[in-house]
Amino acid sequence: MSNIIRITDFQAPELDPVARMTENQLVSRRHPEQGRFIAETPMVIRRALDGGYEPLSFLMEEGLAEGAGMEFMTRCPEVPVYVAPGAVLSQLTGYPLTRGMLAVMRRQENRGLAELCKNARRVAVLEEVMNPTNVGAIIRSAAALNIDAVLLTPGCSDPLYRRASRVSMGTVFQVPWGYLEGDRPYTEQLRELGFQTAAMALREDSRPIYAPELGQVEKLAIVLGTEGDGLADFTIEACDFTVKIPMTHGVDSLNVAAASAVAFYQLALLAGM
User: Fold this and answer.
1) Is 238 exposed, middle or buried (0-12, 13-18, 19+ CB in 10 A)?
2) Left (φ > 0), alpha (ψ -120 to 50) or beta: where does 52 sit?
3) Helix axes 132-144 and 256-270, enclosed angle (nearest 10)
4) 3-class DSSP state for residue 13?
5) What is the model's pTM?
6) Which of 2-16, 33-47, 147-161, 206-220 is least confident?
């Protein structure tokens, strides 16, 4: 059975990841092998474990250790479990724990582009999407709507941020994703792997999302831009297609997360997926 430890000392170094370290500090960019992240809620923790992520500790409200937490204690009997009343945990972490439970987990290495795109027909590219809620929601839509992988530029919010993974309902551990690397434009790298690229952008020459020729593309990367400004002009020019979601009632655009769901559904549907 897991090692249950009642929290009595807030300054215990074992509690640093949840009490004194920011999420950016947990990433540990200088020493990626030391990278950590926080998974919050039983569903997110379960999907992280199913995805092969290693737990380093659990933190949960007392009472859950004999209830919902038993699943994880049985599954990971050697991992320490820190417990305290909910009010104490909120004081410790600085926020109320959603469903009273979180886990500190070890990060995995970034997967290369070729590995992420192997056997993929539809992938999403996020360019500078900085809001973790949007990143989590986009990945959740990708999981639900036949997107095989999600690729992120370095300026995107981290899918393993606590809020992003929670909003995704843990699908960040089910859909392959990774950060784009290298000095060459990612459109060139994708083209070498056989992909054509579709920039989601509002332009006069943009094709509607239901244009039949989009369904005839064997391998398509759907490129979505940052909140507000959208895609960079040079990205749009480098893509094979420019695509838009037709609007009514004078609305000019959707939130990037909402737009991603429409685009993923329609472009997978056109391809018969």
Assistant:
1) middle
2) left
3) 20
4) helix
5) 0.93
6) 2-16
